[in-house]
Amino acid sequence: MPDLQIRNLHVSAEDKEILKGLDLEVSKGEIHALMGPNGSGKSTLANAIMGHPALEITDGEIIFEGSEITDADPEERARAGLFMAFQYPVAIPGVTVAKYLRMALNAQREVRGEKQISLKDFRRETEAAMELVKIPREFSSRYVNDGFSGGEKKRMEVLQLAMLRPKIAVLDETDSGLDIDALRVVAEGVNQFAGPDLGILIITHYQRILHLVEPDFVHVMHDGRIVKEGGPELVGELEAKGYGWIKEEVEAAA
Ligand SMILES: Nc1ncnc2c1ncn2[C@@H]1O[C@H](COP(=O)(O)OP(=O)(O)OP(=O)(O)O)[C@@H](O)[C@H]1O
Ligand SMILES: [Mg+2]
After folding, report:
1. 103, 111, 139, 182: which could join 150 in a potential S-S bond, CB 3.0 to 4.6 Å?
2. DSSP type of residue 30
3. What pLDDT is stored for residue 119 in this prediction?
4. What is the pTM of this model?
């Protein structure tokens, strides 16, 4: 059974249907890319997977490791091993990177019935993770995402991957304002941590990041549904031809 299973998902926001019957399966050990034009519903899918309160799931289900989590709250999902990096991450003033990571780690440990991490172990783990993802030590005393550059936001994303070791990570990548170095940070992080214990769903509008991360599966969204699926070759095809032909295919089939 796939680790994350999305079946016939219908999602509305403010009484407008945004996802119109979406099916997707992501398992550990796989890298999936979700592409599609602006407004096709990619971020809405990511938000629905994480249980965003503004969204209403009107039909279908989300199953994680065999349990239905369609109505679970976001904290519960995070603790179970789902991780989400937002397209527009919010700043958390007053909460340092170190404090944030420690709270997140302790929440995971609580679910596993383990006691809170000691300050000594936490420091050691943080230092190891920061070294692994090449982040200077001062970073841990910054406030989360507060005044972070695009590249620093990406480092925060990768640091969380390194420390929290989620089972499935959804990375909703912003397409504008990220320079090639910031893209490289994400790509290197993904390539470093991808493996049998992690499944990745990387969401992007452009192909840029997919030159640095080779997905096993590519899904293309249009108007709230996945309308085309393939392997990495689809990335090049979309780059050459754009999204227009997909829309035409969908309309011709309707
Ligand atoms: N909370 C909300 N309330 C009302 N409408 C919403 C809400 N969230 C999303 N939408 C609408 O749903 C549609 C899909 O938006 P979404 O952000 O999922 O697209 P996207 O594929 O991520 O686009 P982009 O490539 O620009 O990131 C848009 O028309 C958007 O305005
Ligand atoms: Mg989006």
Report:
1. 182
2. -
3. 94
4. 0.93
